[in-house]
Design goal:
Two copies of one chain form a homodimer. Chain A contains 13 helices and twelve strands. In chain A, about 40% of the residues lie in helices and about 15% in strands. The first copy, chain A, is elongated, with a radius of gyration of 26 Å. With about 350 residues, chain A is α/β, with parallel strands linked by helices. In chain A, the strands form two sheets. Chain A has a six-stranded parallel beta sheet with strand order 2-1-3-4-5-11, sandwiched between helices. Chain A has three domains: about 15-55, 434 Repressor (Amino-terminal Domain) (Orthogonal Bundle); about 70-170 and about 300-330, 3-Layer(aba) Sandwich (Rossmann fold), CATH 3.40.50.2300; about 170-295 and about 335-345, Response regulator (Rossmann fold), CATH 3.40.50.2300. The interface between A and B is large, with 61 and 61 residues. The structure holds a DNA duplex (30 and 30 nucleotides).
Chain lengths: ~350, ~350
DNA sequence: CGTCACTGTGATATCGTTCTCAGAACTGCT
DNA sequence: AGCAGTTCTGAGAACGATATCACAGTGACG
């Protein structure tokens, strides 16, 4: 009754030790590259490890107190290319540094986000990267911080929590985009978007306002709650007495929603209304009217955040220190939806 | 010297037991919903768990032999919306079933894929979902299978390995797309794509061939290796003596590459060349010429695969049984790049 | 030659959980 | 009463790795 059908092939450190005729500690020291092992012993052990195809059991290592060498990443969604690019970069950098990534898409569901955070605690996650979706999980994050868990927020922040932050220059980006429209002679510009509760979005709104006010123009806003169809409201605004002649869309999904509606209503861009979006995407240049957009360096965001997190794991294994802040620049990618000539006409084709 | 600066707040099962004045086994039984615990005891323990904010340590559970309740997902890339949608669905279904997802994008790098698989072994992953990128890791997968690890392949398979499979009807999809072009009167159709070594792609090629042969037409192919720019080759073909009048693109990235090139060269779609792509994407309808494409149910693929995997975890905890196979249907989304009228003209707007 | 510092090695305890087994208390049945 | 079969409970041994401590050996230095 002792032998199972298949021995499950679990080679343990003890097996390796036995094969070498040494103690487990010697093997452990070799695995972890610690001092106080003679060269020939290292070789002997390494041979045995290779021969037996031994791999350390991470669960045991984690249990014994070592960091789990796994970082958690929470994003609102993977369908949005901004987040998926970001996630990809995170995963890549983490892997380079010997960390695994545990990925969650919370789909902006508050309870899910909370559940995911609690799962992470359960699993001795080494650190957390999060594009936070709601203030509801702030308390939980605080609690994790207090226990020394490093946390880095990406793209958005909430006040009053000492976490690392990696953001983009939202104010500048929005300011530049708005100015570009103003330079085209637009005076009535509508700022459209969701989720004004996120500071990234509200920063963009600030940038828009500033540009308008600097030009002595009256900013107009159309901000709706998530789940509300924004298209009809845009159409309504366009049919009002003094309609906007340009639209500034505050993010990816807003741009797409607006473009879809404009197309359905056969409203011509940029003749009837110009549009600039915040957050560029791959296919923007292949659209019916190539979209002028503020490019956010999504992958860079992920890379920086991951490095920041892993750095703080390295140094701050004690109390988990050093919340810091990185702000990355954006770039205005001029295509045609703003009213500019096709790029191929004014510069070299590409 | 005993007290650390912060006690790290690790509430263990023993703390809960002590708080209730019972043994740890009783608490364990309550946590796992096992029999032989009195109702009032269950309540007492549950209260203490809530009060102390206790959460079981997954590392310890995993070590003790329980499944790690984590599944691994390997996809070639997250930038491709097909995979990111799929990944999202996986993550969602897994979460519903109480499993976490460990996500990897191997970026079609053979060594990375191998490394990831070995990491998974190390971490007592309960099961593996993979969109395989190369035959190189087949052996490793076999090895894992032999040790009772459930494996489900998504979208592609390789012969000679007994894993679960979730695929789409590639042959039918390609056949239908090709026929649609033939119905438009096209006789010289070029089938373009990468990665012919994947069976999903080769099945699409088969479907294309079959449709052409059924119609008594000569199939033409343009198949290049990954990393090769396909655009120039397409242009060359279009400038040949008897140029194709339609293109069938074998996947997402091919469609986009071809569209980009056609746009740059100012070749009109569908007048100069019609195009249908395999694998639809969100923005296809907003493109300069809305792309007719074969829609693959990416999310469904992920969902089914995850369910299959988790089912096999549930039943086959012994030897890891039941490789099975699911094939999902595709759908031809007719837009305008094939030469059809705009949808809004021939049916209700949407 | 004794003390010290350092290298190389292994026995043992420990991490937090669950499994095994054993016992206590209670039933029901001869 | 005696015995078997429940239900409820807990002590102790795992799981596989690492930290700690102990000990032997080797020079170095006074």
């Amino acid at each position: 009754m002792r032998m199972s059908i298949r021995s499950r092939s679990v080679v343990t450190i003890a097996d390796v030790a036995r094969a070498c005729g040494v103690g487990t500690m010697t093997v452990s020291r070799v695995i972890n590259g610690k001092k106080h092992v003679s060269p020939e012993m290292i070789q002997r052990v390494e041979e045995a490890i290779a021969r037996l195809n031994y791999q350390p059991n991470e669960a045991a290592r984690t249990l014994k107190g070592r960091t789990s060498r796994t970082i958690g990443l929470i994003v609102p969604s993977l369908s949005d290319p901004f987040f998926s690019q970001c996630a990809h970069a995170v995963q890549q950098v983490a892997a380079e540094q010997g960390y695994m990534t545990m990925l969650f898409a919370c789909e902006a569901n508050r309870n899910v986000e909370a559940e995911e955070l609690s799962q992470m605690r359960s699993r001795n996650i080494a650190g957390i990267l999060i594009v936070p979706s709601s203030e509801n999980s702030l308390e939980q994050l605080q609690e994790l911080r207090r226990n020394g868990m490093p946390v880095v927020m990406i793209d958005r922040t909430f006040a009053g929590i000492d976490v690392g932050e990696v953001m983009v220059e939202n104010v500048e980006g929005a300011w530049r985009a708005t100015n570009h429209l103003i330079d085209h002679g637009h005076q009535r510009i509508l700022c459209v978007g969701y989720d004004r509760e996120y500071n990234s979005i509200s920063q963009r709104i600030d940038g828009f306002k500033k540009a308008m006010q600097d030009a002595g123009l009256q900013p107009q806003h159309l901000l709706v709650n998530r789940g509300v169809a924004i298209g009809p409201k845009v159409i309504a605004a366009l049919r009002s007495p003094k309609p906007p002649t340009a639209i500034f869309a505050l993010n990816n999904v807003t741009s797409v929603a607006v473009l879809t509606t404009l197309k359905r209503e056969e409203i011509r861009i940029p003749q009837q209304v110009a549009i600039i979006g915040f957050d560029d995407f791959d296919l923007a240049s292949l659209l019916a009217v190539p979209l002028t957009a503020v490019r956010q360096p999504a992958a860079e965001l992920g890379r920086h955040a991951t490095r920041m997190l892993i750095d703080s794991l390295r140094v701050g294994n004690g109390t988990g220190r050093m919340p810091s802040r990185i702000v990355l620049p954006t770039e205005l990618i001029v295509r045609q939806s703003c009213g500019c000539e096709p790029i191929s006409r004014i510069s070299h084709p590409r």
